[in-house]
Structure formats: C-alpha cells, structure tokens
Fold each of these.
Amino acid sequence: MTRHKKPLDGIRVLDLATFIAAPFAASIAGEFGAEVIKIEHPDKGDPLRNFGTPSGETPDTFCWLSEGRNKKSLTLNLKTPEGAAILKRLVAVSDVVCENFRPGTLEKWGIGYEDLKAINPRLVMLRISGFGQTGPLSERTGFARIAHAFGGLAYLTGMPGGPPLTPGSTSLADYVSGVYGALGIVLALRVRDRDQIGQCIDLALYEPIFRMLDDLLPAYAANGAVRGRQGLGTSNACPHGHFLTGDGRWVAIACTSDRMFERLCKAMGRPELSDPEQLGRGPVRISRHEEVDQIVQDWLSGMTADEALTICASQDVPCSLVNSIADIFGDPHFEARNNYVTLKHDALGAVPVPGVVPHLTETPGEISNLGPELGCSSDEVLSELLGLGPDEIASLRAAGAV
C-alpha cells in the first residue's frame, strides 16, 4: 500500500509557549507530521513539567509526558542576546512559531512578530494570550479558569441557585484554544502557500469558550434572557440530562426531539406519554421539565445502569454511562477507536496517553514520543539545523543562552 505523506510533513514549528494552550496546538501539528522544536528555558523548562500528577520515576509529570508528545526539546534563554539571536536563525528556516507570553513580552526582547516577520516574511505566528493582543484587557494575565469565568461558561455550570462550578477539566479552555490555534495554523499555511504571505494568529483564551455558548448572545439581545445554572438538565430539551440508576451509577439520556421522546416512552413502557395531548411536544415537556425528569428518574431507579443501557439501545434512545476514567480504561469501544495508545518510557515502562484526533483514512496522525527530557535535542538542533560546532555550543552554554 502506498504511504502518503502526512498533511504537515515538511513543516517546522518552533514552540516557545508554556503550559497547554499554544503547546497543544503545536502537539496537534506534530501528530500530523510537523517537526516540532520545543524551546524551553535552560534552568526549569516548561512549567508544565511540574504540573499535574507526578510520575514518580522521572522529574516530569504525567501531564508533561502526555502533552509534550512528538516534540524535540531545545533549551534557549530568549532573554539573552545570544538566545534571541539563535531563535532568529531558527525562524529563518522554520514555518510556524507558537507563543503565549503576555502581549509585549517578545517585543521587549526584540523577537516580536514584526521582528521575526522581517527575517521570514512567510512566517506563521500563533499568539495565544489570556485576553488577546488588543483591547483594554490585553495586558492582563489569563489562565483557563479565568477564561471559563470571563467567557461565560462558569456562570452556567452548577445546580440552580448554587455557586458556579468548575466546568469539568480546569484546563478546558486551554485545550479548546489549542484546537482553534491548530486550525488557525493550517488556515494560515494554506494562505501562505497560495499567496506567499505569512501572518499572525491572535487568539484570546476566552474566545473559544464564548464561541461555544449556543444561542445565549442573540437570545439575550432579543429579550434580555439570561440563562442560569441548569444542574442536571438543560433549558433546550427535555428529558435531557443525568439520572441515577438503582445501582448508584449515573447515566446520561438525550431527547432532543419528539421522536426521541417517543422512543424513550416505549422503552419505559409508557407509550401514552408521547401523545401530543400529554407530553409529546417539546415545549410542553420543557415547561413541565421537573415532572418529566421525575418520571424518567423513577423508571431508572428500578434498574441497574447496564439494564438501562440495554433497554435504551434496543429502542434507539441516546443513552450512555457517565464514565469515570476507570470506566474508560479498558472500554472496548475506546480501544477499537484507538482513543488511547501506549508508548514505552525508559523509566516508567508502558504509558498510555490519549490518541490522535481526528482520524484521517489516508494520512493518519501518530504519536512518535512522549514528552522529551529537558534539552535532550539541543545539540542535535544547533549542530544539524544551524551548523554550530561543539565550541560554539559550549560558548552558548557558558553565556547561559542554552
């Protein structure tokens, strides 16, 4: 079978960023063929190395091993003239730069977008920051939790009348911004190849969160409606939420149409409830959501989660166990879809990490290595890519640049 090149084969990415958002965009590029050079401070490296669950056998956490995938590690102190000079030489032979410093920081060091564009006019630069490169809040620091709050998601999360809660992963905005960042890179490279111009991608951490808030904006503008915390359900459909089964497990059921509700009624042995004169119409169910949810809850209380899944599947009712990671690990569907893959680590042995998304039939992505040791590729990059000799590399180390 003919092996096609990966979509980003031949693309070189310089990842100057820290933690998750912009580095995640670089990781996605690496999964689909790009050469990714992670540039880290010589002393401590990316703070992500110390974030999350300690691995125990290495100085790096499992978060770093998973999210630092498919990268080479080059140590470079960008604050030094020597380090900035090396970066500029790398930019001349690269395609993409990813960064997430506070706006103005790289400019202060003489390596902002305009500085690098002068070296490589075809350069694509991804800049992810808390509040973007422009606007009255652009200089403020932002993390994912701040993005969830500012972007409107945290306000929606929790039980009615209760406090706003963490929307699942505290790093959700980082990952979503990374996906949008990767999309921006691909779009900009498409334009570069077509029109021979580079450009800057300006992405605020809160913007992907705000972009995913359904119809909240036009609804508020039209009638002043402010959606609040909805707990286990939603105001858009009913029954559409999480329910407790008789064996103490939670399942999710989604009925976004009258036809789906009709199928659920058959599964419950209550077909009469789907009559339009009773609960067969969506607006009626939404107006009587407490009653409808209680009917479903009473039904599920009399069976195990496995029984509920079987019955719902038999009637084509959308239903899933609310999975913990323990449920996911070993699940045959996750395995069949290669949703997680196992790589070998010299000290830890087998380390499973999330797989590549999306699945391309002809040019699939892959994970070549876990997060690298700090500076493990410094000599390789400096000698093979820039042609520096041992004495020059030693001089850079003596100057604290590498």
Amino acid sequence: MTIAAPLRRAIPAGATITQWSAPDGWTIRRFDWPAEGTPRGAILFQGGRGDVFEKYFEAFGHWHAAGWTIASFDWRGQGGSGRLSPDPHVGHVDDFAPWIADIATFWHAWDAPGPRVVMGHSMGGYLVLRALLDRAVTPAAAVLVAPMLGLRAPVGPWLGATVARLMTRIGNPARAAWKGHERPGARLERRALLTHDASRYDDEQYWYREKPEIQLGPPSWAWLAHAFAGTRALQADRRIESLAVPIMLLVAEADALVDPAAALRVADRLPDATVVRFGAEAAHELLREADPVRDRALAAIDQFLETRAR
C-alpha cells in the first residue's frame, strides 16, 4: 500500500535522529524507531553509496507497522555523517574497512529486541555481506536489495577497474571520478536509473532541499577503485559456501548501476539463499519503485522474515 508523499517527507512520530561517535571519534548520524507494544524483532537497514536514511521512511513505516524496531545510520563520508573528502560533495574513501568496523560497532552496541535482522541496499548490500563473512554481525537473517556485488561500467568491469586504479595513481585519488551522473556514459537520466516512480524520486530531492548538507555527489576515483577490487575479491571469497545465515537477495535484472549477474552467481554459492528476481519493470531502487514492484518486494521480504527470522 502506498504511503502518501507528505508522510514520506516527515520524520516518523516516535523516531529519533541522533549522532554517535565511532571508536576513532568519527561522527555518524543515526536513526532509531522503536517498535510499539510487543516487538516482532529489530531491523538494521543500511543504504547505498550516497544514500540517506530519509529515502527509506516509507519502507521503514511498513516494517514498523508490522512490529519491527528500525535502526539505520549514514555511512561515514556521506549523509549527515562526517565527510572523508575535503570536497563535501565527493564520495571518497581510502578503504572500505572502516565501514565494516562501523557496522560491527553499531551492531554489538545496539540494544534492540531479537530476532535481529540486517538489510543492505546496493553498496550497503555489499558491505552487509562482507560483514557477514567476517562475522562482524550475527543476525538471524539478512536481506540484500539490489546488492553491489559487481559494478556496471561502460567499458566493462575489467577495463573499468584498470582505469580507476590508474587514475588513483596519476592524480589526487580523492577527486571526483565524474560529474553529476550516477554512471558515466549512461543514456538514461538519473531518475530512470533509480526508479520508474517520479513521486518517490522527488522525495529524495525534497530531503536534499530541506537538508542540503546531507547530499552527496559522484564518487572519487579511490572509491571506484576500491569498489571494483572489493566486489571482485568478494566474488572469489570461498567463505561464501559456508555462510549459514539465511539470506534473501532481491535482484533487478535490468539494473544499470550494479551487475545483477554477479549477484546471482554469488546467490548460487550461498548455502541458504532465497532469490527474488525482477525484470524490465524494475530499476535499481526496488524499495522506492512503482507500487507493483515495491509491493512485491516488500511482500517477499515479509514472507522471508516470517519464516526465517526467528
């Protein structure tokens, strides 16, 4: 069921937005929405590169209405968390490891009712899977939404990785890899890459107008190089075959930002994977898509949690 746009554009009643400090002192913005009454459990939801948790208030409302406590935080370097680049509009990172450390710290300090579930969209899906493999988080179940387990590149992933690695060596690795667009060389506008639903896309723009400081622009060359290297290493990780956590993967086969084939190959190796596939009707942001796609995605997640998150 669609939630009206005004409700998607307000902090939910009973929710809080605060800040916490990572062990190294880094400031990270967090969102908490405790369940009402007897809780069903707790969901930690992590967005993708450049995401802010405001974009997912509608999905959070769906799960909260079903009795779940909801938490999320902006990855360091984006949203309302401390930036990693002198340019606040560039999504830079020197290493993905601090993100794994942050989710581990949050998870172990998180005072929330069980069963506890972790979800990740796009880059968040990649980081969640890495955290699972490292046993940095120990959920009852996990959900990966359009996970970044491989990257799209106009010149192909191998050459794309080579170019990104070279560009980190011949200039400032923290400089923007491109201007403006989610993906260089794309024939589609940004909205079409993310969702077919113009109203839900406009929700994101609303929050950026309200809080311009949380908006991020293109990635740095260093982020791009680490993303190519990290996803390639994850695909070759032999620990995948022994990962016992029940995992649902929602894969958009027409995704123009991440590689759905890579996600499906990883899913084939997971011992306990449930895969839901979407076709041309779905772009990258499945939880912010038009109602037929979004409702199907939420229903699949609900069924998975009902049977596997115990």
Amino acid sequence: MTQQQLPHQIAELIVKHYAGGISPEEQQRLNAWLVEDERHRALFDSFRHPAALEKDMAFFDSLDLDADWEAVAVRAGYNTQRTGNRRRIWYWSAAAAVLLGAGVFLLWPSGQRNEQRTALAGPPVITPQPGGNKAMLQLSNGKTVTLGQLADTVLSEGGSRISGNNGQLVYDAAGAEEVTYNTLSTPKGGQFRLTLADGTAVWLNASSSIRFPTRFTDNDRTVELTGEGYFEVTKDHKPFFVSVNGVKIVVLGTRFNVMAYNGITRTTLTEGAVKIQLPGNRAWQLKPGQQALVQDNNDVKVMPADIDKALAWKNGLFYFKDDAMADIIAQIARWYDVEVVVKGPLPARLFSGNVRRQASLTQVLDMLHYVSGAQCSVEGNTVTIQF
C-alpha cells in the first residue's frame, strides 16, 4: 500500500471496522497496517471515543476543503466524486493525503494526544477569538473615532462626507474644497474596507494603516500604507501612488496587493500594470501574475506570483504553501491578537495547508499540532508553542 493511497484507504477501513461492515479481506489489510507502527494503533484506538472523533471531524470541516484541498487532490489524481457520508470521509482523509503528499504527517498523533484531551476536559476555557471588522479613524484635528462591525458612522471632514457601517468606510468629496488627511488603522485582530474619494477601494489587513487625503487634487492621488492592503484603483488620468517602506508603487487603474511587514515589501499584481520605484530613479514594471519583492530598499526581485496565496487573507483564509513556521506563527499572532511564546528550535522544513480565518484559535493550533507535532497551549492572551 503506497503512502499516497494510505489516508483514503485506511480512513475507510477504520470507519467500516467500527460500523461493522468490514470484509475479512479488508480487516486483514487493516490489521497489517495496525502492526506497522504504534502510532497507527493510537490513531485507531482514538476512534473508540465519539467525543474525540467529533472534535477531529469539526476541525477538518473548518478547512477550506471545497477550494484548496480538493483542487490539490484532483491534481494528484484522486477521485473526488463522492456523495453523502463517503464524501465527508473522503474530505477528512483527503486533507491528510494532501499534507502527506507534501511530506507532512497529518492523522498520526503523538501518544500524548489522548492524554491532552483528558486533561483539557472540564470547565470551558475562554480563548482569544478570530479577528473581525474593527479599526480606528484619526481625523485631521487629531480626533479619533472607533469603528466596529455594524455601527453606523456619519462624519464631515474638510467638506467631505464620511459614512461607515458593517466594516466599511466611504468618502464622498462632492462639493469639498479643502484637502485634509485622515489615517485609518487596524489593530491586531482587525480588518476594514475603505472607499477613497475617487472610488478606489482598499482592504486593510490586521496591524495595518493607510494615510490618505479626504479629497484628491488635480495633480495626483497619493496614499501612504503600512502593513498589508489590497487595492482596486479607479481609472483616472491622474496617476495613483502608494508609498510604503520607502517604495513607491505607481498605478493608473489596476488591482494589486501590498504586504509590508518587518521591512519586507511584496507587491502582487492581479490586473492592469504597476511600476515599482526605488530611490535613484530605479523602476521595475510588473505584469499581471507577477510579484515584486523588496527588502531593505535594495534591488527589486520580480517573480511569478501565487495569486491565491497573496489574496487569501482578503478572501477569509489562512493559506500556507511552503511557508516557514515563523511566518505562519506571525500571521496567527496578528489575526488572533495574541502573544506567542516559542519554546525549542523552530522546524527548518516548510509547511503547507489552509484553514478559514474564522476558525477558532483552538482549531488553528490543532492544525499546527497536526502538521508539525508542536504542543500548543493557551493561557489568557498568551499562546505557548513547544517544538
């Protein structure tokens, strides 16, 4: 039995065993698998506990199986045309197969896992929640306004009308003459959408900010970004500039994502054209499907982009594809607004997988445990990850 076949076939054999519908030949194959590794027996025995099994199924249901896992499985040659309970079983084992194909053990828990479940039983523990629509708007006079999920907001700034609700802020500069500057900032665990006076739409990720005029002049359209934002720029004869980390991004009408954390700037172009400018009149042109990487304002490195990965945060996903564990932990810390304490050396290998950003912190930490073997615990706002 090959490793690629293993998750699907074994998942079905185990379910058949406990459902009482396994054939003698299938039982023989299952027995042979059980004696291969003590971890196989541990996994098999964990199915005896309905509560534990339900937790595992809930975890895999939180994965974006209809999107990424199934697409990868199809490319790997798996038959995904399943229905009913068999389809759900396939989903569960497909998640394992995809990660196993990437060189990661997924359904093979350590011998400590069942002990952890027992230890965690008892009163419910309140853990940090996923992020949501929240931001802070700073007006030109220094006044700040807290923006939330649903609250209606109507303001006036320099003759421009500002309206906001349900995670969006819209600027209307009709009739405005004065140009003032506002700053929209998202905290850890926050995201927000902004429509500028020219109709350009901006999505801000967690721990990000954008400084912008309430009305654009006749010369150009310039905004300043920190953190990460996705832009859909309205076409206009005036050029649009994004200033970030000492880099100037020049556009006329296009869609692109900019991620600028920890001194590294990644610009990913999905539509149109942008130009990356550095001091000294150095410039690089991007085409759709390309990404520009700038570190410490050195030369730009242009490469093919993984659009799905670059826009995953905007589409409500954590999407990891050959990512370092440090980068994965940083994303989790920003979105769940937690402090992470890492014990032991970080794994040198890279990891792949995805899960919805609205999954609970416990589910995301379960994912880390499954793919890396890390032991995770939460106490208040602190997450400890032991490798």
Amino acid sequence: MNNQQNKLKTLVEILIVSTRLGFTSFGGPIAHLGYFHEEYIRRRKWMGEKTYADLVALCQFLPGPASSQVGIGIGVMRGGILGGITSFIGFTLPSVIALILFASLLHTFNVEDAGWINGLKIVAVAVVAHAIIGMAQKLTPDIKRRTIALFTLVMTLLWQTPYTHIGVILLAAVVGFLLYRQQTVQEQDSFVTGFPVSRRFGYVCLALFFGILILLPIIRNLTSIEWIALFDSFYRSGALVFGGGHVVLPLLEQEFVPRGWLTEQEFLAGYGAAQAVPGPLFTFAAYIGAVINGWQGGLLATAAIFLPAFLLILGTLPFWDALRTNPNIKGALMGINAAVVGILISAFYHPIWTTSIFEPVDFALAAVLFTMLAYWKLPPWIVVVSGAAGGMLISFFS
C-alpha cells in the first residue's frame, strides 16, 4: 500500500512540476533544456549532471522533438513509463489547448486575412532566420558540412515532394559516415544504472517504431479513411525530423498544404501563433489537426506526431552506451545535422519568405522583429505580440 502511495505521490509531483514548465517554458528547445536543468537537476536533483548531459546527447541524436524527449526520459527515470507519460502530458498540454483554441478562432471569426495574422506570418520569418543562424554556426563549422547543407538546400528547393527530405537526410547520413567515420569519440562515463526499461522492452518499442512507419502508408493506400491518412502524415513527420520543431515546418507544409487540407495562409498563421505559446513547437501539429477536423483532429495530430518520440526514447535508452561511443554513428549524425541546415534554409525561402514578404514595409517589420529576438534578447512572446501589432498597423495604413 505504501509503495502504491509513493508511486502516486511521485506521479503527482511529476505532473505538477512538468505542467508548470509547460506554462512557462518559452524560447524553443534549447531554452527548454535550460529550464529542465534548473528545475529537475539544480533544484530537485532528480538526476546528476552527467546523467542529464548524456540524456540530452541521446535526444539530440534521435529524430523528433529533443526537449520533449528529454522531458519524457526524465519522467521515465523518475516514475517509470507512467512517469514519462505524465511528464509529457504536463509539458505539452498547455500549448496544445492554446493552439486548438486559436484554430477554432481562425475558423469561427474568419480572421485569416486580418492584419495581425499577416504580422504573425512575418514573425515566422524572424524566428526561422534566427534559428538558421544559430544552427548553421553549430552544425556546419567546416567546408564539407557546408557543402552538404548547400546540396540539401538545392535539392529541396528544386525537387519539392514529401519524400525529398527523407532522401536527402539518408544521403547526408551516408556522406557523413564516409567523411567523418575516423572521428574519435572521447571516453565517457557510464550512462545510468537501474533504468526502469529493459532491453527486451526497448526492442519492442523500436520494432513498433519501424513497423508503424512502414505499415501506415500501406494501410493508407488501401483505405480511404481520413483519420488513418492524417495519422500517417503526422507520424511520418514526427519520425523523420532531425533538428527540432523548426525543421518539422517543411515536412508538415509538404504533407498538408498541397493536398488541400489547409491553405498556405492558415499554415503560416498557425506557425506564427505557435511562437507565442510555451512548450514544444511540435504542438503546431495540434493546430493543423484542429483546422482540419476540430479538437478531435488536434488531439489525434498531437498523439501521432509525438508517438515516434516516445517509442524512440524508450527503445534506445537501454542501448545508448554502445551507440554513443560508435564513431560511425557519430559521423552519420554529423552529415544529418548539416542537411538539417539546408532544409531549414529551403523552408525559409519557401513557403515562409515567399508568402510573407511582399512590400518593403514587410521586410522592415521582419528586420525589427529579428533584432528584438536576436540582439535585444526579448522573450519570444513579446516578439510575437509586436509582430501581430505591426501587422495591424501595416494593414491600417495600406
């Protein structure tokens, strides 16, 4: 009885702490990792510094939303699989609810062409430009990786299909392996002992991850059920994104806009709104799902896009020690990370720039917003509110 009470107490504690982070964690995945470190490591000491660093390294290695995967991993280590689910719900639900409500507002009041919506689209220009600069400095420091990024940029601009991004990421992994397989891996301490997920369960999770990824498109082609098609599109996007929330933009745009499930205007308005809410950027999927099929679609989209993150973190944690010391794996990852930069630059041009910047005044507002974010270091929600206000002023005087 006492053991059950302790487990329940632990789950309640995880829910309270993660929900508070879900309401206050603005600033994107890197900022989220800082919030996690302050709350989970420094204040509550749920794990040591080295264990946390290893967990972060693993989640940077995996496709999917890195900060969400770190939060899930911390929850699992603290309270088992239920702890991971609880941690995820607390951190994710606030932004999911906010974006579903925004989608409802967009439809109910027909505000798609309002000035403040155009301002949110210009916010997306500033945010993605800032992300590109930061990621390029870290992920393409030498001429080889810059060349990989350039090749990826050209391919994704000239050959715009849902499968292009998958192809260039796989090709970049092969090139990275060939170019950087001699990379030495520094000796590291053991990851963590007593992890509450067995290797057998890890194999099951990895088998489910790949099984769903392979079977869903087949089932989708054999049926005409809309929710299966939606689940497949969101699951595939969540499973194949390296680099975090900003990089999921081109995959989601290619999946949903050409098929007519939502317009380019609706897509970019939601992306701008996603910058105004705390929590993971992957909750942008909740907005898309809600635009397509109400709050039920929003919840389905959230479950589908985050399911790969769950399966991957639970599947790989038991094997991380062996993976992280493999120089071949590290070389492939270096190539993939360089490709991410190219994909992000491609998305910056289309659809973000081509559907947001039409007049000199649009570019001027984008420059102001970028300066607020990159140099004045203002919180993202202030930048978003300023962009909406700027968009209203532009529409008023034009």
